[in-house]
Amino acid sequence: MRSLVRGQKSKLSDFTTATLIQVGLGITASEGMVFDLSCFGVDAEDRLSDDRYFIFYNQKSSPCGSLASLGRQGGDMERFQINLSTLPQTIRKLVFTITLDGEVNMSQISRGYLQILDRQTKVAEFSFNGADFHAEKAIIVGEIYLKDVWRFAAVGQGFNGGLSALLNNFGGEEIKPSPPASPKVSLEKKLEKDAPHLVSLAKQLTVSLEKKKLQDVIAKVALVLDASGSMSSQYSRGDVQLVVNKVVPIAVHFDDDGELDTWAFANKSQSLTPVTVKNINGYVNREWGGWQQWMAKLESGYNNEPVVMNEIVKTYMRSNLPAYVIFISDGGVGYSEQIAKIITESSKYPIFWQFVGVGGSNYGILERFDTMKGRMVDNCNFFALDNINSISDGQLYEKLLNEFPDWLKAAKAQKIIR
Question: pTM for the full model?
Answer without folding.
Answer: 0.62
